[in-house]
Amino acid sequence: MQYHDHDGSHYLTYPDAARLATGDGPAALTRALAERSPGAPLALHVRLPFCRQACRFCASQRVPSRDSRQADPYLTRLDREMVLVSRLLGRLPAVQRLHWGGGAPAFLSLDQMGDLFDRLDARFGLSGARGRDFSIEIDPREADVFTLRHLQALGFNRLSLGVQELDLRVQKAINRVQPRVLTESLVDEAERLGFHSLNLDLIVGLPLQTPRGFGETVEQVIAMTPARITLRRYAHLPERYRPQREIDAEDLPDAATRLAILEAARERLDDAGYVHIGLGQFARPDDSLAQALGEGRLARGLQGYTHYPPGDQLGLGVAALSRVGDTLARNALSLADYEAALDASQLPASAGYRLDAVERLHRDAIEALACRRELDLAALSQAHGLDAGAALAGALERLAPFCRAGLLERHGQCLRVTPDGLWGLTHLLAAFDPQATPVA
């Protein structure tokens, strides 16, 4: 049985966003926004789905395009969505957390980026405080030093660069040839400009990947000294994601090879002093994530681990997710449906779901294990006003094999994740998900 694996993309929401059924999304999101506490902070996530090149590992709703001017109609509708939402929110405190994802946000021209930032500020009010967390995902092939200078001038202070793999054979197999010097030049410029946090993304399980080759990639990335390094797992689902049909399944590493790749990466990151936060996220000891973990205040948002307290997050753009109170909402997955809703002056949420009492219990159990590495059933019972041990009896039974395998320890009402268990954390979290696929 393969316990030692990970995938940080799972359980950013519970239930998983992929299982959100279509329904009256606008009504669900409208109700959730209306029920928010006045003055409560709100984080913003903006999806910019455009990219010039189709990476074969892609598992996102992306819009292929060569000309940034083709994004203008989308940006116009994005502003329309902002207007509709801001009318429901009323007065907000200055937004401290902003994230631009995609796609490749740097696909936009500098003028388009500036205009979008100004519109967000006009509709919601963006913070200029030093403690703000304004992050953006960057494809190094789409950006240069002038891009970074413009982003820094706008107010962004955290970058996530998509490296994926530095082995040229693998890069060709996934249609993402990206010379190391390209990434290094951006890393050096980001440091010079004073971006307070830099994350480099790597993917495990790509075609033609080997433990030795990926180990060399990890060593080269460590040499760039980023504050954070993320290991993501490639999931081969060609029936769902068209670009993946270009990948030859016979070139994919098997489970044993993937485990060897992970173990080699783990050893190198440990030797370099990086702290394993969990779910493939690593951070230097001086980074805010490592500090939050040590102080017991780590949380999870829709983009992964954060040192900010959990709170409401609003997604803007096609396929964007929102989490407001106990409600999850997802915008239309297709660009056509997204545009049609906004052209009709309707919120583009195509699905909305409000968690019931049992689901909130499961959500909080997942959050406790993922962020604090332990679950106190007595505290959970008190917080939810019920017997958590009885309500989670099925989950606790599913966790028994992990206890025997040494990934989890149970001491009375308290369960603790072991260091080895961090590498099987996805499976531990899945025990609290009745609809999860059993470990194979």
TrEMBL record:
It is an enzyme of class 1 (oxidoreductase). Keywords: 4Fe-4S, Cytoplasm, Iron, Iron-sulfur, Metal-binding, Oxidoreductase, Porphyrin biosynthesis, S-adenosyl-L-methionine. The keyword S-adenosyl-L-methionine applies. It catalyses: coproporphyrinogen III + 2 S-adenosyl-L-methionine = protoporphyrinogen IX + 2 5'-deoxyadenosine + 2 L-methionine + 2 CO2. Binds 1 [4Fe-4S] cluster. The cluster is coordinated with 3 cysteines and an exchangeable S-adenosyl-L-methionine. NCBIfam families: hemN. Its EC number is 1.3.98.3. Pathway: Porphyrin-containing compound metabolism; protoporphyrin-IX biosynthesis; protoporphyrinogen-IX from coproporphyrinogen-III (AdoMet route): step 1/1. It is found in: Cytoplasm. This is Coproporphyrinogen-III oxidase. Pfam families: HemN_C, Radical_SAM. It comes from Halomonas alkalicola. Residues 34-272 form the Radical SAM core domain. Belongs to the anaerobic coproporphyrinogen-III oxidase family. InterPro entries: Coprogen_oxidase_HemN, Coproporphyrinogen-III_oxidase, Elp3/MiaA/NifB-like_rSAM, HemN_C, rSAM, rSAM_horseshoe, rSAM_sf. GO terms for molecular function: coproporphyrinogen dehydrogenase activity. Its cofactor is [4Fe-4S] cluster. Involved in the heme biosynthesis. Catalyzes the anaerobic oxidative decarboxylation of propionate groups of rings A and B of coproporphyrinogen III to yield the vinyl groups in protoporphyrinogen IX. Monomer.
